[in-house]
Amino acid sequence: MVRLFASAGALFWFTFAALAQTYPARPIHVLVGYAAGSGPDIQARTVAQALSNSLGQSFVVENRPGANGTVAARAVAQAEPDGYMLLFSSSSIAPTPYIYKHLGYDLVGDLKPIATIGELDGVFMLVDAKSPIKSVPELIEYAKSHRVLYGSPGVGNELHLKAELFNQQAGVKMVHVPYKGTSEVMIGLLSGAVQVMFVSPPSVMGLIREGGVRALAFTGSKPFPSFPDVPLMKQYLPQYVYGSWGMFFAPAKLSDAVLTKLNGAIHAALLQPAVAEIMQRDGYMPDRRDAAETAAFFRKQVQETAEIVKAAGIEPN
Question: Percentage helix, strand, coil, to 5, in the chain?
Answer without folding.
Answer: 45, 20, 35
